[in-house]
Amino acid sequence: MADKKEKKSTRTGAYAVITSVVMAVVLVVITIFAYTTRYTAFSPEKTVQSYVDGIVQTGDGYNAYKTTLVSKSMKYGDFIIKGYMNAYVNDGDDVKQADFVGSGNDAEQKAIDSVYSQMYDYYIELLNTYTWDDYDSFFTKYFEKLAQVRHEVYKDEYMDTEFMFGALEANVQSYADSLTGTDEVLAADNKTVLSEATKGKYQEKFGDDYKLTTTVKEVKELSADETKAYIEAYKTSIKAIADSGAAKADALGVKDEDDNTAKTDMVDTFSSLDHSEEITAVAEVTCQVKDEKGKVDVEITVPAVKIGKSWYIDNTNLSTNPLYIGLK
After folding, report:
1. Beta-carbon contacts of residue 86 (< 8 Å; ≥ 6 apart)
2. Burial per residue of 57-83, b for 16 or more beta-carbon CB atoms within 10 angstroms, e otherwise
3. In terms of pLDDT, which residue wins out, 6 or 87?
4. Which of 86, 125, 189, 268 is most buried by a 10 A CB count?
5. In the beta sheet, which residues pair with residue 300?
6. What is the dihedral of CA 314, 317, 321, 324, to 10 degrees?
């Protein structure tokens, strides 16, 4: 029988304007995601279903990479830091931050809001141009822009990974909320409204009581010969980015200096993306996404590969564009 996963249109946990609330919501989403994926990795159909459903429900192609080959060799956050963020990190003791940083005053909140707002517009531009399929261009361009915006708004040269993750993950959450809408958020007194309830694009397009359902239609496990051919094709396609670390580091001026191994980390990070010697099986899983009113009917076939006892999405051989129904 086909597996089904359903999610209601009302979201638990809304994006609040205040940064601490934003990050709390993001952490909850990540925790739930990690707990869920732990128990789906042993099944190609459940791995793919979770991957597809996550993107469809909230447009979150960013966190979806936790189930892909990108996250096989190292933690996803470490991959982003070593592959993309370290080129912009400038958090030494000799780098002065804007005077308002850490004050919690209106000036700091205004600066945070300005950065998040400008970067959100750019996030949507990147999403429309690449979706998250081209994560390399997405991360490269996003952090380059973020460094520029930080300098313009804060008038300093400081950058650290916490600031970069904060901006990106706030943008991811804001986009999710733009699709699903948000609940009203109250202060501790249960009276003061921190954030009004909002209606999302999905409610506007499909109705307030919409329900998107992801169903596994078919699972095809490739034969030994087909698997061998698939691995050879994968090895060819992954080579360019796996070999790109040194050139990327040089282009961004990333170097190894004293105890800083930023260039080596970048080179090793990209070379570790080649898993051609580890794949033992391949499955093609076809999923259908529908709503109850017939306004959504999407079908997509996603390749999953087995390494050890776990299955991973092969993000090198996939177009998730049909799943970003909020962009259409």
Report:
1. 254, 262, 265, 266
2. bbbbbbbbbbbbbbbbbbebeebbbbb
3. 87
4. 86
5. 287
6. 0
pTM of the predicted structure, to 2 decimals: 0.85
Round to whole Å and give the CA distance between 73 and 261: 18
Count the neighbouring beta carbons within 10 Å of the beta carbon of residue 208.
11
pLDDT score of 39: 55
**Structure tokens of 289?**
């996404």
Q: Supply 75's token pair.
A: 């933690």
CA distance 7 to 32: 14
Closest CA to 319 of 88, 83, 132, 40: 132
Provide the Cα torsion 65, 71, 76, 79; round to 10°. -120
Q: What is the pLDDT of residues 235-284, one digit of tens each?
A: 999 999 999 999 999 999 999 988 889 999 999 999 999 999 999 999 99
Report residue 304: phi and psi, to 5°.
Answer: -125, 140
Tens digits of per-residue pLDDT, 124-141?
Answer: 999 999 999 999 999 999
Bridging pattern class, strands 4-8 and 310-313? unpaired
Q: What are phi and psi of 278, to 5 degrees?
A: -105, -20
Relative orientation angle of helices 106-130 and 135-154, to the nearest 10 degrees: 150
- The whole-number pLDDT of residue 93 equals 81
- Identify the three-state secondary structure at position 306: strand
Retrieve residue 128's tokens.
Answer: 């429309």
